[in-house]
Amino acid sequence: MKTIFLKLGGSLVTDKDKPFTARLEIIRSIGNQIQRAIGRLPDTRLVIGHGSGSFGHAAAKASGYKEGDTRFFNSQGFQSICMAAQQLNRIILDEFNQLGLPVVSFPPSASIHSSGKNIINWDLTPIQLALQHELLPVIFGDTVFDTDLGGVIYSTEELFLHLSNVLKPEVILLAGKEPGVWADFPKKSKIISELTEDNFSGFQPSINASQSVDVTGGMLKKVQLMFQTKRLLPATEIRIFSGETQDAVLDALLGKPLGTSIN
Predict the structure, then answer these.
(1) What 3 state SS string does the chain have?
(2) What distance in Å separates the CA atoms of residue 168 and residue 27, rounded to the nearest whole number?
(3) Per-residue pLDDT of the chain in tens (263 residues, 90 and over written 9)
């Protein structure tokens, strides 16, 4: 049984420059592509994740949240970010459900607790059972209670890293707005076809954080987390690509080598 993790980036499913704005046509198109891919992928388990885009990131900025901030826990800020993340999750679930996709949401805020931004407990049994029953688990970037810091935000990539320990995906696909990792950001004229830990240092200065509001580190953090995942599962194929191109998500799910590979 093959397992694929598919992340729909916040920059893809929302307009990250317009707070609380979902890109409904893109979401519907991706849902349609997932539906078509499932019919051509027997014996494959799919876990879907999505970013919070202009929902969670805008709420985080408004609440003053900063990654790694150890100031006194702001419960109102935690709640507002949580509500924003779940608002987008509900939009995506509703759109996918209307297309007939058997999606089930697993909010991290309701199932994870951490300490010092390290996950202490996450009962993955419900997700495993959902997969056994041919359902599509959906996770997303969300707030998590933390015994040291009060509350933290986990990105989908961080959640995928933890999930990889148990579900051992053969493929991880990160679909965003950009066609891959740029070798010359912000000029954006050349895509890096393959990133390795050997050539990473040469490209690192140009792998910049997002131009839009992003409280979880942008592209640089994504790449670093994927290197961690690759060290955990060396045989796993990892790709960062654009989900905006026609049928790109379908093609990626079917194995077409798009964007930037992480090796």
Answers:
(1) CEEEEEEECHHHHECCCCCCCECHHHHHHHHHHHHHHHCCCCCEEEEEEECCHHHHHHHHHHHCCCCCCCCCCCHHHHHHHHHHHHHHHHHHHHHHHHCCCCEEECCHHHHEEEECCEEEEECCHHHHHHHHCCCEEEEECEEEEECCCEEEEECHHHHHHHHHHHHCCCEEEEEECCCCEECCCCCCCCEECEECCCCHHHHHHHCCCCCCCCCCCHHHHHHHHHHHHHHHCCCCEEEEEECCCCCHHHHHHCCCCCCEEEC
(2) 27
(3) 899 999 999 999 999 889 999 999 999 999 999 999 999 998 999 999 999 999 988 888 888 777 656 666 788 889 999 999 999 999 999 999 999 999 999 999 999 999 999 999 999 999 999 999 999 999 999 999 999 888 999 999 999 999 999 999 999 999 999 999 988 877 888 999 999 988 887 777 777 644 444 555 578 888 999 999 999 999 999 999 999 999 999 999 999 999 999 99
Cα–Cα distance for residue pair 146/116, rounded to 1 Å: 7
The whole-angstrom separation of Cα 240 and Cα 207 is: 13
Question: Which residue type occupies 13?
Answer: V
Q: Indicate the pTM of the whole model.
A: 0.93
Q: Which of 66, 151, 76, 72 is nearest to 115 (CA)?
A: 151
Beta bridge partners of 261: 194, 239
Structure tokens at 55: 């929902």
Of 148, 161, 10, nearest to 68 by C-alpha is: 148
The identity of residue 147, as a single letter, is T
Long-range contacts of 198-205 (CB under 8 A, 24+ apart): 200/227
